[in-house]
Design goal:
The structure is a single chain. The protein is an all-alpha fold. The chain is built from eight helices and no strands. α7 packs parallel to α8 (about 210-225). The longest helix has 27 residues, at about 45-70.
Length: about 240
């Protein structure tokens, strides 16, 4: 009897562990994160979820902007960018270790690390965005010649005809799959990059694991808030 009881207890323990693991996985999904009001998060679990999501969003935005910039650089400049980025990644991790190591034994240690990573990643993102949006004559910018396509020539305008507008960006509101899955990585990266550039949110939904429609809505909102105050050129595609 004792053997059967032990076996039953072991099976029950395995079942409980499986359920707990499943719940943990559910809580890390984009939908679960969206259900948490990160601005009002107070529990340690909610704070950890929000800081992890924030760091992941910053990483996704940085990767997207890096790829866009890399595609515009001449080979020599691209090599220097890669070298700089490869040096920056260990710098970020070591800087965060320096800041947080005194609290390594505390329960908030992982949250502090993710917060630091998000902060430094957003700072690096801003640096690369500056390279993409430099005004002519800014000597802090690297010339972007290699990989940049020549602008397409517009067809002759017909007298009295209104100028053609860029094709509007579309994303199905009913498709809740991750954007990288529903639209493909290239399109998802484009949305992430555009979303990061215009979103006014503290924790923007600019992540390929979110639905495309969520990012498109955020891009529209950001472009609307910028208005005519020197918006990115892609904003014209999001006007109704």
């Amino acid at each position: 009897m004792s053997g059967k009881t032990s076996l039953l207890s072991a099976s029950l323990a395995v079942a409980i562990f499986a359920v707990a693991a499943g719940l943990a996985m559910l809580l890390t999904t984009p939908a679960a994160r969206a259900a948490i009001d990160c601005a009002a998060a107070k529990t340690q679990a909610d704070l950890a979820t929000c800081t992890t999501a924030n760091a992941a969003s910053a990483d996704a935005g940085l990767n997207a902007v890096y790829k866009v910039l890399a595609g515009r650089l001449a080979p020599a400049s691209l090599k220097r960018l890669r070298d700089a980025q490869r040096a920056w990644i260990p710098f970020r991790d070591k800087e965060c270790a320096f800041r947080t190591q005194p609290y390594a034994d505390g329960s908030v240690y992982s949250t502090l690390v993710e917060t630091c990573r998000a902060e430094l990643t957003k700072a690096r993102l801003a640096q690369l965005q500056h390279q993409l949006q430099c005004p002519e004559g800014d000597l802090s910018c690297v010339p972007q010649s290699g990989g940049s396509a020549a602008p397409a020539k517009a067809a002759p305008a017909t007298a009295g005809a209104a100028p053609a507008k860029p094709a509007p960006a579309k994303a199905s509101q009913n498709d809740t799959r991750p954007c990288v899955q529903s639209a493909g990585k290239a399109k998802s990266d484009q949305y992430v990059s555009q979303c990061i550039q215009v979103s006014p949110a503290t924790n923007p939904p600019c992540n390929g694991q979110n639905a495309c429609s969520m990012m498109v809505d955020e891009i529209k909102r950001g472009c609307t808030m910028i208005g005519n105050d020197n918006p990115p050129s892609f904003c014209s595609a999001y006007k109704d």
